[in-house]
């Protein structure tokens, strides 16, 4: 496929509309052309445009004033701007937190032993979240990734703003999942980057400072990718499926990383660090620092804090992908989670999302559809779902409605 003079051309098709530019999406088959009145989406295969979709009068995304929360913290405010103050029902509810409960801890070194495999199965069925130890990612690499990420967030604002996240975008530095001027904001700064396959990367958004950031993230991502693949093989075993089931199904899996920084907040009872949501990935791997238990998981109607364990990684199964609801027809359930803030301590996390290739078609596996458990989800293209997820605000498990059969 080639782009010529602002127009999109292919060997066998031609779109005769003058465009302001074009963007490569996170799918190798999807190109988005920008025009002042239209958005043109081309779905291509081997240089042939097989589908075009023009959406007229696409409005520019206006998100209003979005303050950098670290800068707000540095100002020493005694309260927070209105856009961060949640409505009563949406505020952290201390009475609805089960502080004594703990999510399961899985020893990866003991897998695929029967006892640990059964613990993994119960964790997926009953929690959708678990921590892993003896996971094979070196502790020194975890420490280095955490330290460099913190160094990035401690840079002056003008340095971080060299890697801006566009309004409605999902890569770069800023606030993701913001789509309107009146939307409530999270008390969090983010740096989000596409990692694999290489076509989803936007090199201009990869920080050059700290000096070893890119090199370390590359090594870190390779190790975490390997862990995801090992865990999916074990999860397949818990479902009595061949270990290679998800590897073969996913194709060239997509991997992205998002670093979250939550500065202290003067009124933590009024804000959310990260809105309650479930993930659109197949599996998510979260590394959190030891400062405080800011991550909370919804279990039985109460919020359970995820207490940090030194050098453990937090794993959760995603919305509509392999070991989550769609492929298992609801047997393994994705779970809502959120982040809360602290008045005294900042908090840092590094989150990796691992998902099927965008051209993969997903739907419940035949093994999990019976007369007693009828099909609950339709078949769909993962790129189609991913586009729906990243253009929707974080709002519980609402994005999962995309795949449900009414």
TrEMBL record:
This is Fe2OG dioxygenase domain-containing protein. Keywords: Iron, Metal-binding, Oxidoreductase. Gene3D superfamilies: B-lactam Antibiotic, Isopenicillin N Synthase, Chain. It holds the Pfam family 2OG-FeII_Oxy. Residues 253-356 form the Fe2OG dioxygenase domain. It comes from the Eukaryota. It comes from Paspalum notatum var. saurae. InterPro entries: DIOX_N, IPNS-like_FE2OG_OXY, IPNS-like_sf, Oxoglu/Fe-dep_dioxygenase_dom, Plant_2OG-oxidoreductases. Belongs to the iron/ascorbate-dependent oxidoreductase family. The keyword Iron applies. The lineage of its organism: Eukaryota, Viridiplantae, Streptophyta, Embryophyta, Tracheophyta. GO terms for molecular function: metal ion binding; oxidoreductase activity. SUPFAM superfamilies: Clavaminate synthase-like (SSF51197).
